[in-house]
Amino acid sequence: MKGYLQIIKGTIEEYATYRLSFILWRVRIVVQLLIVYFMWWAIFAEHQELFGYTQASILTYILLSAFVRPFVMGTRTQEVGELIRSGDLSNFLVRPVSFLKFCASRDIADKLLNVIFAVVEIVILFFLLRPPVFFQTDMVILLLAGIALIMGMIQFFYFSLILSYLGFWTPDVWAPRFLSFVLAEFFTGVLFPLDILPIPLFTLSQSLPFYYFVYFPLKVYLGKLSVMAITQGFIIGLVWLVALWMLASVVWNRGLRAYAAEGK
Amino acid sequence: MVITLSHLKKYYRVHEKEAGFMGSIRSLFVRKYQTVRAVDDLSFEIAEGELVGFIGPNGAGKTTTLKCLSGLLYPTSGFVSVLGFTPFERKNAYLKQIALVMGQKNQLWWDLPAQETFLLNKEIYEIENEKYKQTLHELVELLDVESLLKVQVRKLSLGERMKMELIAALIHSPKVLFLDEPTIGLDVVMQKKMRDFVRTYNELKKSTILLTSHYMEDVRQLARRVIIIDHGKILYDGKLDNLVKKFAKHKVLSIVLDEYVTPDKLKTVGELVEYNFPKAVIRVPRSASNVAAAQLLQKFPVDDLNIEEPDIEDIIRDVFTSPKK
Fold first, then answer.
1. B120–A10: do the CB atoms touch at under 8 Å?
2. SS3 at position B236
3. B32-66 burial, b if ≥16 CB within 10 A, otherwise e?
4. Domain ranges across chain A
5. Which chain B residues are Cβ-neighbours of A13 within 8 angstroms?
């Protein structure tokens, strides 16, 4: 167990080593947020209400999704493909260490850092932009939102791992990853709330795992979902979680058999 | 026996890409596969505390064998047992007792000082504080790297990094150590230090060591027993001294002459390999070496004469290049 703490510590130290690249990365995230924010701000400049959202509610949604996103989608698992391709994975396989837990530890470190900085940034943005924010006070809903968030995190973790595990068979995992992330980005609801989509698309999105990464926890937090919708969301989300987990472990085990430990 | 290998086979299926752009396009649709027999029916046993040199040309199957032994690869067929474990099951109890050091791979945390990796390994291998401190101290002394512990790994030289790799790999005092090309890319001085270290470590800890290398010097200095493989098969397994007797068909006579003799005259004795008056080197068949020496002493103005075994590297080159029996 202490080994994994050491991994978390080391990962954070790594970030600290490259301060400039870390700062630039944060700048990128803030710019990304501002782009989406001002896009919606402009769209609503001449309308009171669109797609069932007021300007205030959509901007709240965008800011909150910017906060939730690093929680869920902050990851280091994109390195795994390269570890496999280069053969560096061998270093983990010959040590008595669980590779899955290693990845999870690195992700926890990543998320910790992400969240600390995201909080600071968003607080600053709140003061600058002064959007009307909705604070949830119902403890039950907060608890549910927290659980939904953790569910989304684990789902995303396995989703990202599976994509990287493709490295066992194809030397370049960048293309499938990129494609999947473009798709995921659209359906996670970080660009816009999913319920502004046409009904068929929205229904489709609910059956995809991406829906449960960001949109679902956010909606639970905002208290906009009926008990029925929350229950349904947790059931489908859980099914996806188990499915992704099982798929990840099958792909890993098959991958190891195909693993050639290349590059000496 | 610490290591038992019986009829180990590891075949890879690789796809052949035709040369050029059109070839790449074609291989998108139709792929031809080829089976590479990296390791083909390999059997040997290694006892506790042995230091065995594993040699062969590039692509002979040395590294593949080490990977099968350390649990990285699933063998295509055959039986592998190390310390009573089946390596590719990768049980923690097994992994805690072995180490694999690859000269061209590093496990060290690249952007952090090496001691961070040591600490990580301390936790991974669940080493107690006292034991950790003692082992680390020992290794740091042996390799003389006290001052480098706090330096970022990426700032270390290749030789320094290799030392740190060794420490990281040995911090849990493994019973079995697989060393794959530990001296590759190092300069002569560093190679010697590495060798001295491996020898001392083997004597001190009585750990079983299997070492591969391209450098004959490594093997000559370290291993009493060598296993030579090529094309995934064993060519020789035994003492280094016997290798010479078995494969060396010649002996080498080195002489120093008092007076100049024409090369043609020297050629009557045997094959003249080198002639740089007053020194000459003549190669003669093994069985005829005594006769040739006597002949030289009687008929030529010889000041000094030495009968030598040919260089191991030459013998091995002969073994590898000679046509298949």
1. yes
2. strand
3. eeeeebbbbebebebeeebbbbbbbeeebbbbbbb
4. 2-258
5. 112, 116
Name beta bridge partners: B16.
Answer: B32
Of A13, A14, A87, the CB nearest to B105: A87
Q: Where in chain B is the domain with CATH 3.30.70?
A: 249-308
What CATH code would you report for B249-308? Answer: 3.30.70
pLDDT, chain A, mean: 86
Nearest CA distance, A5 vs chain B (angstrom)? 9
Instruction: Judge contact between A70 and A29, C-beta under 8 A.
Output: yes
**Are residues A95 and B124, on separate chains, in Cβ contact within 8 Å?**
yes
Q: What is the pLDDT of residue B325?
A: 44
pLDDT of residue A242: 96
Task: Name which of A198-202, B70-74, B146-150, B249-253 the model is least confident about.
Answer: B249-253
The residue in chain B having the minimum alpha-carbon distance to the alpha carbon of residue A92 is B107
A259:B95 CB<8 A: no
**A13/B105 Cβ within 8 A:** no
Q: How far is A84 from chain B (nearest CA, A)?
A: 12
Residue A129 tokens read as 């932009």
Residue A142, CA distances (Å) to A60, A135, A148, B54, B149 in order: 17, 10, 10, 63, 47
- Return the residue of B nearest to A94 by Cα: B95
Within chain B, which residue ranges are assigned CATH 3.40.50.300? 3-10+42-244
Please give the DSSP secondary-structure letter assigned to residue B310.
Answer: P
Where is average pLDDT lowest: A38-42, A208-212, B112-116, B173-177?
A38-42
The pLDDT, as a whole number, for residue A104 is 93
Per-residue pLDDT at A223 exceeds 60 = yes
Q: What is the mean pLDDT of residues A147-168?
A: 93
Give me the CATH topology for the region B3-10+42-244: Rossmann fold (3.40.50)
Query: Tokens representing A197?
Result: 């989509």
**Range from A210-219, B71-80, B103-112, B134-143 carrying the lowest mean pLDDT:** B103-112
Q: Give the residue numbers in B contacting A (CB under 8 Å), as ranges.
A: 12, 63, 67, 70-74, 90, 92, 95-96, 98-100, 102-107, 109, 111-112, 116, 119-121, 123-125, 152, 180-181
